[in-house]
Amino acid sequence: MDIKPLLLASGMIAATALAGCSTVGGSVYTASYASITDAGYKLPAIPVSKVPEQYRRQIVSYETKEKPGTVIVDTTSKFLYFVMPEGKAMRYGIGVGKEGFEWSGTARVAMKREWPVWTPPAPMIRRRPELAVYRGGMQPGLQNPLGARALYLYKGGRDTGYRLHGTPEWWSIGKAMSSGCIRLLNQDIMDLYDRVEVGAKVIVK
């Protein structure tokens, strides 16, 4: 009897048990929130046990008329869906705009940036004068509010000022506390970044 398949199967079971997984249609998708070094920056591991299970990255059944590759943001449920073929979607937990900073509509991903520079908009600086020091831009890093990746949303050829971006504040996922941007765990925005193409449709509702 060839024991290799059994060893491979047991190894897979052990790996998914450690990392946390979602089973969809007989396939297993494992979301990793381990520490990772990227472009010289060492992202810390996410204490995933403290992140509610529904906000962890997972494949889910999702019926929509939108084509695969579309991003749909459900601000009420605090979920972002990346539409996949055959009625599936990759779902991510998100943080959304706090009261008075909510928005909705349709936009396009005009640019993608790894380890982006963050420039606080003028209205934010007026609200928080201490941010004036970053008027010329805050350099990339582990404490940068845009995190490891950013997707820039445009509408009608104009910058909306809104982004889909990472955040070092993992505890803010599932909450309404941003200035309107949609934030994801750094490990999740890196996953989403690799899936989304420039020009992709983004629906925020």
UniProtKB/TrEMBL annotation:
<keyword id="KW-0573">Peptidoglycan synthesis</keyword>
<feature type="active site" description="Nucleophile">
    <location>
        <position position="181"/>
    </location>
</feature>
<keyword id="KW-0961">Cell wall biogenesis/degradation</keyword>
<comment type="pathway">
    <text>Cell wall biogenesis; peptidoglycan biosynthesis.</text>
</comment>
<dbReference type="InterPro" id="IPR038063">
    <property type="entry name" value="Transpep_catalytic_dom"/>
</dbReference>
<keyword id="KW-0732">Signal</keyword>
<protein>
    <submittedName>
        <fullName>L,D-transpeptidase</fullName>
    </submittedName>
</protein>
<keyword id="KW-0328">Glycosyltransferase</keyword>
<comment type="similarity">
    <text>Belongs to the YkuD family.</text>
</comment>
<keyword id="KW-0378">Hydrolase</keyword>
<feature type="active site" description="Proton donor/acceptor">
    <location>
        <position position="165"/>
    </location>
</feature>
<dbReference type="Pfam" id="PF03734">
    <property type="entry name" value="YkuD"/>
</dbReference>
<keyword id="KW-0133">Cell shape</keyword>
<feature type="domain" description="L,D-TPase catalytic">
    <location>
        <begin position="69"/>
        <end position="205"/>
    </location>
</feature>
<feature type="signal peptide">
    <location>
        <begin position="1"/>
        <end position="19"/>
    </location>
</feature>
<dbReference type="InterPro" id="IPR050979">
    <property type="entry name" value="LD-transpeptidase"/>
</dbReference>
<dbReference type="InterPro" id="IPR005490">
    <property type="entry name" value="LD_TPept_cat_dom"/>
</dbReference>
<keyword id="KW-0808">Transferase</keyword>
